[in-house]
Specification:
5 helices; globular; five-stranded parallel sheet; about 130 residues; alpha/beta
Length: about 130
């Protein structure tokens, strides 16, 4: 079975590396990008199964990335916002832009993995695999 692909959008390289190692260890394939335009280009070129999105990133901010991706008819992945800006206004604005979930930084490993699992339910067996 192909590993699920998660696009990680985070402008702080140490945090990006930490998230990618965590997700790789949990069996996910990751692509990490450092800014909003790279996130949009990457999501279009190699559609992810889920996006982890920081709000404060260079270029197009996380709110803009979320809005643009959700307006794209070909984009279907859930978006989980990960941000140190977790005030009521920030959370409300993120959901208004189309976010499917919001997790505050610092990142809680178990909460992150649980949220991803909840948004990426198990795939049905492929046609080549016999049903149980």
């Amino acid at each position: 079975m192909e590993r699920r692909h998660i696009l990680v959008v985070e402008d702080e390289r140490p945090t990006l590396t930490l998230i990618e190692k965590l997700l790789g260890g949990a069996g996910y394939r990751t692509t990490g990008v450092l800014d909003g335009m790279a996130a949009i280009r990457t999501a279009q070129a190699d559609p992810p199964d889920l996006v982890l999105l920081d709000l404060i990133i260079p270029g197009v901010d996380g709110y803009g990335v979320c809005t643009l991706l959700k307006q794209d008819r070909n984009f279907r992945a859930p978006i989980v916002v990960l941000s140190g800006r977790a005030g009521e206004k920030d959370v409300k604005t993120a959901f208004g832009a189309g976010a499917d979930a919001f997790l505050a930084k610092p990142i809680d490993r178990n909460a992150l993995l649980a949220q991803i699992a909840a948004l990426l339910p198990a795939r049905p067996p492929s046609k080549t695999e016999p049903a149980p």
